[in-house]
Amino acid sequence: MEFWEKTLGAPIKIVAPMVDASELPWRILSRRYGAQLCYTPMLHSSIFCKDPKYRKEALASCEEDKPLIVQFCGNDPKVMLEAALLAEDYCCAIDINLGCPQAIAKRGNYGAFLQDKWDLLYQIVSTLSKGVKVPITCKVRVFEDLEKTLQYVKMLESAGCAMLTVHGRTREQKGPLTGIANWDYVKAVRQAVKIPVVSNGNIQCIQDLYRCLLETKVQGVMTAEGNLYNPAIFMGVNPPGWEPALEYLDLVDMYPCPTSYVRGHLFKLFHHVLSIPSNNNLRIELGSANTQDDFKRIVNRLKAMYINYHEGVDKWELTTEEGTHNLILPPWLCQPYVRTPPEEHIKKTTEAESNVESKRQYEDSDGNPISRKRMKKLRRIARRPEKLDSVQTHRSLEKCSLCVNPLGSKCEYKLCKKCCRDKCFTENLNCDGHRILVKARREMAQFYSKKRRDGEVLKCAS
């Protein structure tokens, strides 16, 4: 609690770590609109240790950007310790990402895909907490089973975790299946541990934040999407999109960042306006914009289009044709994007699959069912049968005789390219199919070597 109160200043309004989104200019903007604590984007510990450029960009900060927590992902205690030691002088704490549910985290074996490896997690947290001078915090997701979730967070606390951020969703709740975060689990975690707990999930407006504090009794509340669609969420206001957009672009002039980050922020600030069909040309323009001048020009055009409505000079009417009928506020105001409920998504997916099954079924000449794409290909071949012999209609499914890789279609030795290269190298062979000319090149080298030696002998004799 001393870390929470004295080092961090007991923050209640917290901006989440967001890949390609919580960079320095956006953090400063968020702080100006009421955020009390910000995180860096998730940083890959291995790359952070090896790449000085990546490290310099990741640690970009300033006096206005305090307090700050740096977040790392990874699965090697030694590498993560090395990364943490390189970052400890630039932040108030180091956070370990144990909540990312995306496919890239699964491939890299980090984030929420470590939550089943408790021995490794205990080693990572304890190694960092003992080896780094700043506190170590963790951001986690919950299990389906509440009791397992409580055992999980107690294990992290015993390993040396100084603060927990609990995202009240499971690893499987992502994308169209995101759904509602379970605050009952967050409340149970708050009661089970003695360290500060931050709740993450379901924060679309300032009222949600206060309701979360009341229901869960946590120390602070974190938001990601709520902040991206309305950076003034912590002030309880909904400014017109061009106000934070222009202020953010001025900050980018001071603290440059990749244009892809800028483009992403503008798309979210103007999400509802750009969803109107008549503004599709501006949406395309923003998608291809690559300079600060382009971004500012587009924002000012949007401002000119809607400022009279905003100031009451002209009257705005919501119509179904304009795609804004489901909004409570006018579309130019910063406001949350509400996802489709998972049940509705599942229903649509089921209906789509049933529609596919009810569509016309195709068969080949033997009566076997085939796809529409395959049917079109067979018809194309039938129209030009003379090309049948010269064009390979499908890839060979044969395997290399030495490994599981696909067989080279023209290889003399029935091998894949790697095995063929090894065989030619050790047995002094050529393979015209793979264009591997080991024998020919060796013979050529021997020929020129002999020619050079003969020339030297003649020169010595003369």
UniProtKB/TrEMBL annotation:
Coiled coil segments of this chain: none
Catalytic activity: 5,6-dihydrouridine(17) in tRNA + NADP(+) = uridine(17) in tRNA + NADPH + H(+); 5,6-dihydrouridine(16) in tRNA + NADP(+) = uridine(16) in tRNA + NADPH + H(+); 5,6-dihydrouridine(17) in tRNA + NAD(+) = uridine(17) in tRNA + NADH + H(+); 5,6-dihydrouridine(16) in tRNA + NAD(+) = uridine(16) in tRNA + NADH + H(+)
Keywords linked to the UniProt accession: Flavoprotein, FMN, NAD, NADP, Oxidoreductase, tRNA processing
Segments of skewed composition (Basic and acidic residues): 346-363
E.C. numbers: 1.3.1.88
Location of the DUS-like FMN-binding domain: 15-235
Region ranges (Disordered): 346-374
Enzyme class: oxidoreductase
Highest rank taxon of the organism: Eukaryota
One Gene Ontology term of the molecular function aspect: tRNA dihydrouridine synthase activity
Cofactor(s) listed: FMN
Family statement: Belongs to the Dus family. Dus1 subfamily.
Protein name: tRNA-dihydrouridine(16/17) synthase [NAD(P)(+)]
